[in-house]
Amino acid sequence: MNTQLTTTPVATSIAMPTTMRSARGLAFRGIRNIRRLPSAFFPAMAMPVFTMIAFAGTFAAITRLPGFPTNRSVNWFMPLGICFGAAFSGIGLGFSTIRDIETRFYDRLLMSPAPRRSLIIGPLLTAWVRVAILCAFVIPMGMLLGVRFTSGLLGLFTLVVAAVGVSTISLGWGLGLAFRFRDMRGAAVMQLTMFVVLYLSSAQMPLPLMRGWLHNVARINPTTNILRLAREGLVLKTSPDYMSWSNTWGGLLAITGMATLTLVFARRGLNKLDK
Amino acid sequence: MNSFSSSHADPIVAQNLVRYFGDVKAVDGIDITVKTGEIFGFLGPNGAGKSTAVRMLTTLLRPTSGTATVAGFDVAKHPDEVRRRIGVALQDAAIDPLMTGTELLRLQAVLYGIPQAQMKNRASELLERVGLTAAADRRVGTYSGGMRRRLDLALALIHQPTVLFLDEPTTGLDPMSRMSLWEEVRRLNSEGTTVMLTTQYLEEADQLADRIAIIDAGKIVREGKPQDLKAGVGFPTLLITVPSDQTERAKAVLATFGDMRPTAEGSLGVGLRGGANVVTDVVRALDEASVRVQHLEINEPSLDDVFAEATGHRLEGAKV
Amino acid sequence: MTVATLDVAIETTARSRQLSMRQTIALAKRSTFEIARQPALIAPSMFFPIFFAVLSASSFSRTTSIPGFPKVESFMQFTLASTIVQGVLFGSVTGAAALATDIEIGFFDRLLLAPTTRTGILLGRLAGSALFGFLQSAFFLAVLVPFHAPITAGIPGALVMVLSGGIVSLAIGAIMSSVAIRTGSAEAVQGAFPLLFVLLFFSSAFFPRETMSGAYKRIADINPISYLVEGLRALVLEGFTLSAVVRSLLVPTLICLAAILFALKELRRKLAAL
After folding, report:
1. Which of B19, B170, C120, C256 could form an SS bridge with C171, CB 3.0 to 4.6 Å?
2. CA-nearest residue of chain C to A58?
């Protein structure tokens, strides 16, 4: 080791790190890892494309049902694919947090004086960047496959808002489980729960065309409102689910409520980490 | 206890620190005081409670009971104040293999609030100090074990802490890397950093520490300066190996020269009351008792003897 | 050769065949117990197919009125066949991943060091998967048939469906085992799993081919999974016909034979390289 050294005096050894600066530092790390470990991000990209193509192709005939909100199956399934991708973008950060906990890298973050909330805001910023990349990739591909926005840019906007909302919810959930389980069992629970919550909604069929127990569950599942928000710019103008404030506020409320709950869940889990 | 910093306060003070994991009492009421500017060694076998104690002092774990202040602040009540003042290099070099050395140092600088203007220089200096300048822009996943430890140390020093915790810093390192790290610890200490070092290596504790606490099963069994602890054991240990059918006769002879001491299997040890001078008398007595000595050596007291005397068993896994 | 020498030779061959059989059975038992002792590994392949079946039955209940949709009592009846295929497809990856793990951790070398029959190493591993496939198929039928999903072909039809499920499991297990032997990596085997998923979706597993159109229909038309599922579905919807039985058994059997031969070839190649 070098014995000659000139020391730059640090402004103070008792420095005060700020929340946003620390969060940005952590977000840059997360974004860098997208490039350096693409296999971890690939499922979140592949899934929406696959969902869009496979579901739209397999279930294309459902658009022939009277009252179906659109006559293009890709219009119906692309938002679902994007919401899946957004959900797994958030969950993916839960996986990487578990990895950091298992390798003890997370101890380093916990031992730093960075405000604790930056350990949640940082990954949240990463999740949003992931969703932006996802939308930038999937939406043009959807349009090549025949997707048409019936309400122009506003429809695109509501779709992206829904995706960002879903990724926020799933990030909170993923982090909360990661902090509680601290190993890969948490990953299995994350995947299963997100899958179930997303599917027990109007994921595959509009609410009015559903029957039985699923209709009752989907009616009260906030994800149904979020999917309505995501799709309102892609359904026919004559459909009751078309772009309107009444089809929008429910989704925004669901996003706000669920995001608040899951982020509080994450924060409480973080508090438990050093108990 | 006053929880606000005083320039004369001891940097690390723990009183009756206890930590349970379920029903298991990992740390059983330890009292430690580390003076400003000293290197304090925490020596004990695997599972003794060293790392648990360090994790409490570095705010990663809450004590079940008891109190601790580090750098003048209570670890439970003011953890953020403690974190700003301490540097920690844990047992497992906690680094992200996907990042480069430079990136990790910069992230650490951000998390410790080091101003942007100083970040780059500080990172470069530390990389040079630990000899990683050439590897700075390589991903840490490509580093050797020794390089990771050095980077870990650099990360712990980014904010010029007054108190440094090193948890088994040389475990798994080759002898050259170990010596190099010892040099660095001595240099840091000479610059005024108080160091608390946990180790299972006797020689490391002996060489580096001004004072040592020996921990076993969660309790501190001995504390003091290495030379005083060894002197307290007193007599040198005579170790012999004899045929297995002559063990009892050999024990009877040795017992007349001092107290028997625990040894590795297959050998017998005795603390020679008369010192090294009486070795010939021992050999003569064994010969008269028709005991054939296959191997004989005499050892001055070591920290392992200190441990053995305090606990009744050798420091398992202790490396010399 | 003298008579005595010939007698000894025949006896040696018979004993050697007996030993091979015993070894294969022992390895089959091992792979079966391994699966049984790790419920977390098999739970997804039991839970998800049933979940999707129940979900689809409720979600798509009105789609049975779409022109081109076969005459069914319920969507559940339609989806019974694809539930079996889905479940055994996902479940059969487990055995191959375990074989890859054996190679990774060196247990495979231990088997090679012992006088173990080489074919037995592979077949023993696949036997566990096949047995699991049989049990899975029976389980799915037992759980779902009571929910408005009667099998027109009755008990014989159900037995053929269970047999077919086991053969499919064996076939996929053999294909994945080839990947395991070639790569020696459990991760590579797991990585091949999405391909099965894609293959399943681009078929008539989840919706009738008659309602599809364009390129998607063309893919489903040439996908062997479509014919496998339609064979099983014919047992459920049409009855115990020769055509249904042949499609349910012939397609998986042909795939299975080809897959096992390929896997054995991979194994011989690997052993030759040692």
Report:
1. C256
2. C207
